[in-house]
Amino acid sequence: xxxxxxxxxxxxxxxxxxxxxxxxxxxxxxxxxxxxxxxxxxxxxxxxxxxxxxxxxxxxxxxxxxxxxxxxxxxxxxxxxxxxxxxxxxxxxxxxxxxxxxxxxxxxxxxxxxxxxxxxxxxxxxxxxxxxxxxxxxxxxxxxxxxxxxxxxxxxxxxxxxxxxxxx
Length: 168
Prior knowledge:
alpha+beta
């Protein structure tokens, strides 16, 4: 995706087919995506490609604004959100996959847990180089701030995700 300055950035997302509107997916390539982020501790000491990825869980502030990011492990996220549905949410939005370069789909590796497989990472690096994005910047050893939409999370979007999760 390109940010507001036209610079490209990448995100790890999980497509939620149950929340995706089938007609929009077929017509426009728009899917409902849940965002993932590097594990904070890993991001301090490991290259991006060796970091574990966790669901991007945010605090829900008054008025529906997203607050601080918190780390919740992938196997605990649903239970955590069920217990704290008024305080936290998994950041998600509709993404047009036809308008963006896509690498995947892929499954996270199990050893080490929740990491991106080398062949997927290598494909991403090749595509980045083709777009004149410095691949070294994408695999750095430092913590990068994550550009997020500063829009409010609508009650409808928040409740829709919670209802879906409770049905599972």
